Backbone:
């Protein structure tokens, strides 16, 4: 290279470093009439480290300058007919060793032997297209500090993913898509620029980058497989050689690799398996969540110009369903390929099956159970699968029935009696699955909130549906779990009265009417509790003999002075105040007591002593217990 031209080329690199677009334009676009001055520079050049003005501008954050450089490359680009030929060789030894890449390509071009470096054209005509400059190898890791140089990023997209720079990644993916659409030599469709960076995003758990790559490139989506499952068989006449026939099978993937085309996703390891093998819990959770399915659906919807994606979009109304089925199928693959990890527990003692029940995911639970997962597993607090189904690992009570019936139906019928009566050490201790759910769902009524309106609407239709489904499921066991004390010395029937849940109370005594006369640890039956609560409410606000004119009191309440009541309030059928929760419980208990035996079931001495011991040790245990967390608890959602 002549000295003057070399100096100007270095100036173009320096201008890219500074983000000086005016200087770059002056060096590459402006021509001079002076024959002694060199003509415009070719911008598509690389230094000995394989950096170009474009890559330097990107790595320095001058994105507008980088985009303008590619426009200059387009202006200088002139495609020339190539006399180059390609020669392919097969490594037979590598083939027998089972390696995938057994074919190598060699470019044969006589022009490479001609030394014409000194010939400089007055008008720049560059054979390098913007797409070629964009996608060329670049040792971007050299822009990192010394501690991070081991990452060894080989292009700009990998650099953006490795740095978790979502804005830069989106810029590069959008730019790559624009250049692909502009380049006539590239097959129409989606060019997967993020394929090589995708494993990095999975391994590092950079969810923003994962979402961007999926939305723009659809990496990992088996389109042909999804079309076949939708009943669509797409037969295309191959445009290229489909590869050698090896053991009766065409190796189209070898031929595709030789042409520089991406390999079909069906031949690659699925993203979920890659995430599992890399040990990235964040990526595994993302691929199992609806967010990943929505990202793939957005990719399909925005690329309907591709025939296969358009067919897939038209074949089903809900695109998320086949994508979710595909992801769930990978859970089955994980269970088969890594059975030794099915019983691995987190720091809190949760196996994958326990997490599936806690999340309420019946599909994943079914896959794990069919693969042989242990259904008797319990966490560090003694919570079994039914405990975790009704209240998740964080102690949040289920508010809607959802797929409770489906999850319960997956359990081995031989284990049901023990699963219903096993106890958890969660506060207040000795909690069966139903008792734990009730303690987490309701707050006890206190005297400070007395009044017939203070506790209305605590039980919902969804909670009642959960109870009814659960009691129907437990009918074969004789509802023995309803007869068991919790850490406070109450049965679930006592708790229903205590928390003012008349419909839940009615459902329970419908299955076990004898528990109406079952004593708790203090010797009180549910009937007596209901009576005491109603008497307490009825006498807590007696009517005033003399009205206090200076104090407002609603006219419709029975405690208002009779002289202040409206005359029509004395007519028959005039709407009275609605029945309170305690009044309803008292009425239901009395109605059931009149039709059932009054045989009282006394609390035993052993039961009372056991409750007393639990209450005595509860505070000590709570003070000495420390919760241990790990990545499972941090990423659980």
Residues:
């Amino acid at each position: 290279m002549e000295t003057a031209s070399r100096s100007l080329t270095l100036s173009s690199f320096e201008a890219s470093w500074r983000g000086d677009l005016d200087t770059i334009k002056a060096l590459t676009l402006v021509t001079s009439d002076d024959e002694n001055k060199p003509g415009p520079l070719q911008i598509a050049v690389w230094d000995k480290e394989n950096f170009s003005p474009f890559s330097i501008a990107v790595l320095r954050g001058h994105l507008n300058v980088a985009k303008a450089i590619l426009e200059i490359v387009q202006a200088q680009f002139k495609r020339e007919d190539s006399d180059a030929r390609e020669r392919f060789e097969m490594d037979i030894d590598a083939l027998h060793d089972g390696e995938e890449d057994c074919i190598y390509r060699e470019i044969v071009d006589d022009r490479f032997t001609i030394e014409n470096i000194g010939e400089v054209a007055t008008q720049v005509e560059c054979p390098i297209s913007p797409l070629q400059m964009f996608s060329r190898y670049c040792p971007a890791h050299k822009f990192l500090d010394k501690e991070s140089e081991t990452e060894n990023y080989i292009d700009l997209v990998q650099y953006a993913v490795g740095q978790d720079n979502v804005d830069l990644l989106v810029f590069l993916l959008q730019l790559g898509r624009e250049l692909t659409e502009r380049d006539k030599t590239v097959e129409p469709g989606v060019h997967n620029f993020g394929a090589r960076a995708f494993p990095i995003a999975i391994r590092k758990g950079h969810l923003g980058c994962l979402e961007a790559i999926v939305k723009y490139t659809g990496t990992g989506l088996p389109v042909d497989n999804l079309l076949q499952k939708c009943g669509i068989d797409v037969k295309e006449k191959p445009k290229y050689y489909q590869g050698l026939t090896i053991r009766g099978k065409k190796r189209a993937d070898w031929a595709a690799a030789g042409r520089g085309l991406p390999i079909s996703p069906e031949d690659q390891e699925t993203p979920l398996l890659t995430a599992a093998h890399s040990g990235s819990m964040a990526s595994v959770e993302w691929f199992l969540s609806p967010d990943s399915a929505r990202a793939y659906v957005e990719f399909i919807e925005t690329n309907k110009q591709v025939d296969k994606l358009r067919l897939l979009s038209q074949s089903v109304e809900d695109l998320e369903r086949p994508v979710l089925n595909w992801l769930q199928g990978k859970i089955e693959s994980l269970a088969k390929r890594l059975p030794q990890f099915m019983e691995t527990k987190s720091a809190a003692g949760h196996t994958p099956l326990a997490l599936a029940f806690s999340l309420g995911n019946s599909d994943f639970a079914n896959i794990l159970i069919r693969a042989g997962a242990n259904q008797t597993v319990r966490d560090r607090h003694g919570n079994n699968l039914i405990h975790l189904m009704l209240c998740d690992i964080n102690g949040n009570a289920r508010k809607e029935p959802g797929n409770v019936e489906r999850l319960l139906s997956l359990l081995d019928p031989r284990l049901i009696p023990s699963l219903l009566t096993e106890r958890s050490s969660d506060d207040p201790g000795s909690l069966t699955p139903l008792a734990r759910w009730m303690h987490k769902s309701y707050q006890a009524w206190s005297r400070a909130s007395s009044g017939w309106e203070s506790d209305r609407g605590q039980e919902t239709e969804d909670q009642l549906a959960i109870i009814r489904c659960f009691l129907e499921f437990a009918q074969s066991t004789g509802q023995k779990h309803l007869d068991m004390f919790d850490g406070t010395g109450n049965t679930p029937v006592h708790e229903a009265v205590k928390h003012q849940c008349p419909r839940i109370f009615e459902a329970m005594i419908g299955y076990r009417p004898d528990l109406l006369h079952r004593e708790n640890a203090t010797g009180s039956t549910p009937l007596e509790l209901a009576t005491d609560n109603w008497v307490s409410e009825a006498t807590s606000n007696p009517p005033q003999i003399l009205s206090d004119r200076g104090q407002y009191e609603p006219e419709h309440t029975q405690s208002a002075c009779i002289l202040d009541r409206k005359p029509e309030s004395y007519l028959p059928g005039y709407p009275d105040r609605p029945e309170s929760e305690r009044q309803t419980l008292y009425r239901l208990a009395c109605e059931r007591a009149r039709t059932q035996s009054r045989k009282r079931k006394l609390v035993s001495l052993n039961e009372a002593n056991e409750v007393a011991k639990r209450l005595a040790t509860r505070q000590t245990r709570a003070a000495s217990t420390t919760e241990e967390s790990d990545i499972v608890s941090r990423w659980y959602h």
In short: The chain has 30 helices and four strands.
